[in-house]
Every structure is written in structure tokens, then in C-alpha cells.
Amino acid sequence: RQVLVTTGATRGDQVAVLTGVKEGDTVVTAGQIKLRQGSLLAINNSVQPLNDPNPKPRDQ
User: Fold this and answer.
1) In this model, does residue 42 exceed pLDDT 70?
2) Residue 55 lies in a domain
3) Is 31 within a domain?
4) Is 32's pLDDT higher than 80?
5) pTM, whole model, 2 decimals?
6) How far apart are CA 10 and CA 60, in angstroms?
7) Taking Cα atoms as reference points, which of 14, 18, 21 lies closest to residue 6?
8) Can you tell me the distance from the alpha carbon of 16 to that of 35, in angstroms, rounded to the nearest whole number?
9) 14: which strand partners?
10) Is residue 56 part of a domain?
């Protein structure tokens, strides 16, 4: 289901979510433009973001 969230501070490509989700919720981080309420999902957790407290910008 779609929920509204309140975001906070950012660090690199990480964003703090202050309200709207709780521990254990599944969050869609890519492809959400294609979702509709009630859509079936195939969850693929094979790609995990790095948890780097001091991320460096990528060369463009």
C-alpha cells in the first residue's frame, strides 16, 4: 500500500525517514513509478546499498 512519509536529513544518497514507516516494513526504492495500489510484487534483495557513513560523490 502507498503511504506518505516525512523525510529528514540526507547524507550522500541516504535519506532519513522520520515518519510513515515502522521497523520491518518493506520499502520500494526503485521502480515505484510502475506501481499501482494492489499491484503484485516480486521482491529482489540481491542489490543492497552500501552503508557508508562518509559517502564520496561518484565521478560523472
Assistant:
1) yes
2) no
3) yes
4) yes
5) 0.57
6) 20
7) 18
8) 23
9) 11
10) no
- C-alpha cell of residue 40: 503484485
Comparing 21 with 57, the larger pLDDT belongs to: 21
Instruction: Count how many domains the chain has.
Output: 1
The CA radius of gyration of the chain, in Å to the nearest whole number, is 14
Residue 8: per-residue pLDDT: 94
Amino acid identity at 25: D
Q: Is there a domain that residue 6 lies in?
A: yes
- Residue carrying C-alpha cell 547524507: 11
Based on the number of CB atoms within 10 Å of its own CB, is 12 exposed (0-12), middle (13-18) or buried (19 or more)? middle
Instruction: State how far the Cα of 37 lies from the Cα of 39, in Å rounded to an integer.
Output: 6
**Any idea what DSSP says for residue 47?**
S
Read off the C-alpha cell for 38: 494492489
- In sequence order, the 6+-apart residues with CB closer than 8 A to the CB of 36 are none
Question: 14: domain range?
Answer: 1-48
Residues 6+ apart with CB under 8 A from 6: 17, 18, 19, 20
